[in-house]
Amino acid sequence: MLGISRRLRLAAIGALVAVVALPTYAAYADDPTPPPPASVTDVKRSLEQLQAEAAAIQADFAKTTIAYTNAVKAAQTTEAAAKQAEQYAAGKKSVSEVERHKLGLVTVQAYQLGIPTVIGTESMLWSLAPVAENLQELADRQAAIRQLGSTQVAQYQKATAAQNAAGTAADDAVKKRAAADTAAQTVRTLGLEVKSKAQDATLAMQNQMAEMAGASQQTDQLQNSRNAAAFAKWQSYLTELAATKVIAPAAGTIRNPAKLPAGLKPYVAAGRTVPGAASVVSAGRTVRVLSAETIRAVNTAFSLLGKPYSMGATGPVKYGCLGAARVAWQPYANLPNLISKVYPNYQKVPTASIQPGDLLLIGSKSIGLFHIGIALDGNEMIAADEAKGSVTVTTVPDNLFAALRPTLGQPSSPQRPPESTSQAYQFRCGNTATSYDVGTGAWTWPIGEGEYEIGTPFGQPGPLWSSGYHTGQDFVAPVGTTVRAVTAGTVRIEHPAWAGNLVRIDHGNGLETLYAHLSRIDVADGARVVAGQQIGAVGTEGNSTGPHLHFEVRLGGDAVNPMPFLATGSTSTGWGGYSNGAIPADKLCGLSGSSGHMLRCDAAASYLAMVNAYKSRFGKTLCITDSYRSYASQVSLYDRKPSLAALPGTSNHGWGVAVDLCGGIDHFGTAQYQWMLSNAATYGWVHPAWANKGGGREEPWHWEFGKPASA
Fold first, then answer.
1. Of 34, 133, 153, 506, which is the most buried if we count CB atoms within 10 A?
2. What are the C-alpha distances in Å from 387 to residues 10, 504, 681?
3. With contact defined as beta carbons under 8 Å apart, do 371 and 398 qualify?
4. The three-state (H, E, C) secondary structure of 600-667, written as one string
């Protein structure tokens, strides 16, 4: 029923989107296009909710599968311990029987010689039990008489000690056998649960794929509507400026607010005079005046909207992250070829007074700079976005590092960019890595097992959240319940209105976790914590509907679904917001000459370039057996080959960036395999270390798309 109601909702939203006229960005219309209806924003949230639901399905299956795998290991361990204990008990029993038999012989000697026993009647009867009734005469009766007293006592002590040891060993063996039987039953139960959940997950993901594809198309329409609304707003400004009869001045003439051309006044934003802009009063209204160069840059940026993204491309058909910004500001500003080199060359301005046309640099001190956009009003920017596959209007992310105004020229004081790490590449142009190291040390849940209930999931839409959807995972628990760090990192304490008391932990490499609504904080700002360490207690501070922990995982500043992290202790984080194995077909690219095979489009382009080079060398095309793998097919493969296949939802096949090859490449040491080792990296393809010879899981045929050598 839920799926049907969602489809009806999306269909209705699609009808609303369809009536929104999309302008041609190369020209201005007399009547600005109105913004899309508010309900259209439901489309984006619906897609995000579908993505969150898909990730939750995968996380649930992963958690069950991991529990099963751990149970199998525990059963093997307990079975081995039980067998060892049983063998040990059998040995002790044998020793006990030997020692008791010896005691019986000594007792018989004493009886035959008429020597009173020193061990008591009851013990004497116990000692005689293992001895045969017909006893042979002892050869040296006189020696026995001399030694019998002390020998009988010593032997009695040895026999009773052996008997006690045998009993202890037997009890231990019984306990360990019971533990082994319990563990074996747990394996059987979890095994059935895994199979059941595999069937449920496969069916659920198959049902979601159709909905995901529909929501994806609706989101594309929404993006076009958002582009149109931003352009209409820009048109309105230009129309208002034209009505003042003021011709946009050259950048150099309004650089200094104290020396403006006649008729222009300083422009003030957030209580500050804005250099590089001016104002004029017309019909009783103050109108902002931007430079001609700035207006041209923004107009150019709008003309790029909808053009496809391509890594490092500078147009005219495709644009990379920096390419769109560079083209927008040419010829006035010739931007360097790296974002980190842009930062030192142009004057930084306060973020509170950002104006259209400013260059917005995204990044952090711990990673470096990895994204750039052209500022618009309303906390929006135009940027080439890899995750969306095109140049789009998007919200300025939280991790804005700096705003630069090219019309102000060189900075007044040196501006040094943060040192860029290899992790900066992981967050290029609005995208995140397809697989991610979740930090050093163990990874645990923020609240102990059995102490919480799962609350509002990541991605749920609603007016309670400023983003329009829930950016974390809630854990409902009583006030005062212990909250733990999920892995090692450095603490930063904050008190935003929405969270009340917030602990933010930086785990390095762009990974952060957030713990909100705490009733108390038990760690100091700047402290280093380890996995499982108590950092606070559940509360209901800030914008909260009741006692719970709001838990977030952020990568490069963007909130991502925490559940895969919690389920596996590591994760694949997605591409374009989609879940592993749940990428709609229209977001993938086919491989010509390879029937049915598909990859992420940048991986497909690089793969086909590699195919051409391979064909020149060997006279035949690359032989391929596997490429993009849906979640359902991952589950099926894992069910058939659990020791070989990756855990469903974690395979890079599910991101469309992995291939399995044949035709000689599937054997170490062949000419074809050696060619791949020597040449594949040129096209961005690598053979992962775990698949190398001697790496534990030897798979010469498996290759993955990584960072191209030219990037």
1. 506
2. 22, 26, 23
3. no
4. EHHHHHHHHHHHHHHHHHHCCCCEEEECCCCHHHHHHHHHHCCCCCCCCCCCHHHHCCEEEEECCCCC
Query: What is the spatial distance between Cα 604 and Cα 657, in angstroms, rounded to a whole number?
Result: 8
Token reading at 464: 């309670």
Q: State the Cα–Cα distance between residues 290 and 386, nearest whole angstrom.
A: 30
Asked if 267 and 254 count as a contact pair (C-beta separation under 8 A), the reply is no
Can you tell me the distance from the alpha carbon of 375 to that of 357, in angstroms, rounded to the nearest whole number? Answer: 5
Tokens at residue 281, please? 């009063």
CA angle 56–58–61, rounded 5-degree value = 110
pLDDT of residue 4: 32
Residues 431, 437, 439, CA angle at the centre, nearest 5°? 120
Q: What contacts 605, CB < 8 A, 6 or more positions away? A: 589
Which DSSP state fits 334?
-
The beta strands (E) that lie in 151-269 are given as 265-269
Query: What are the strands of the beta sheet with 658-662, ordered from one edge?
Result: 623-626, 658-662, 702-705, 685-686
Domains and CATH numbers, the chain: 47-120+135-239 (1.10.287), 245-431 (3.90.1720.10), 453-568 (2.70.70.10), 585-705 (3.30.1380.10)
Q: What is the pLDDT of residue 116?
A: 58
CA angle 341, 352, 358 (to 5 degrees): 40
Phi-psi region of 559 (alpha: psi -120 to 50; beta: other; left: phi over 0): beta
CB-count exposure of residue 277 (10 Å: 0-12, 13-18, 19+) = buried
* pLDDT for the residue numbered 414: 93
* The predicted structure's pLDDT at residue 70: 79
Q: Which of 242, 231, 528 is nearest to 391 (CA)?
A: 231
CA atoms within 13 A on the CB side of 60: 19
What single string gives the DSSP state of each residue in 25-69?
TTS--SSPPPPPPGGGHHHHHHHHHHHHHHHHHHHHHHHHHHHHH
Nearest to 371 by CA among 510, 492, 187, 497: 510
Using CA atoms, how far apart are residues 569 and 440, in angstroms rounded to an integer? 11
Phi, psi of 259 (to 5 degrees): -130, 65
Partner residues linked to 702 by β-bridges: 660
Query: Can you give the pLDDT at residue 46?
Result: 59
Question: How do strand 380-385 and strand 390-395 relate by DSSP bridges?
Answer: antiparallel
Rounded to an integer, what distance in angstroms lies between the CA atom of residue 295 and that of residue 234? Answer: 10
Strands 685-686 and 702-705: antiparallel
Local structure of 118: helix, strand or coil? coil
646-690 pLDDT per residue, tens = 777 777 888 888 999 999 999 999 999 999 999 998 888 989 887
The token pair that represents 528 in the structure block: 């280093």
Q: Which residues pair with 476 in a beta bridge?
A: 453, 548
The residue among 210, 390, 226, 239 whose CA lies nearest residue 313 is 390
Structure tokens at 589: 């690219």
The list of the chain residues with pLDDT below 50 reads 1-45, 121, 124-125, 128, 131-147, 708-711
Contacts of 592 (CB under 8 A, 6+ apart): 608
At residue 136's C-alpha, the angle toward residues 131 and 137, to 5°, is 125
Name residue, tokens 């749940």: 582
CA distances from 682 to 309, 320, 621 (A): 21, 19, 18
Half-sphere exposure of 217 (CA within 13 A, CB side): 14
What is d(CA 633, CA 209) in angstroms, rounded to the nearest whole number? 13
Contact 573, 555 (CB under 8 A): yes
Answer yes or no: are the C-beta atoms of 256 and 231 closer than 8 Å. Answer: no
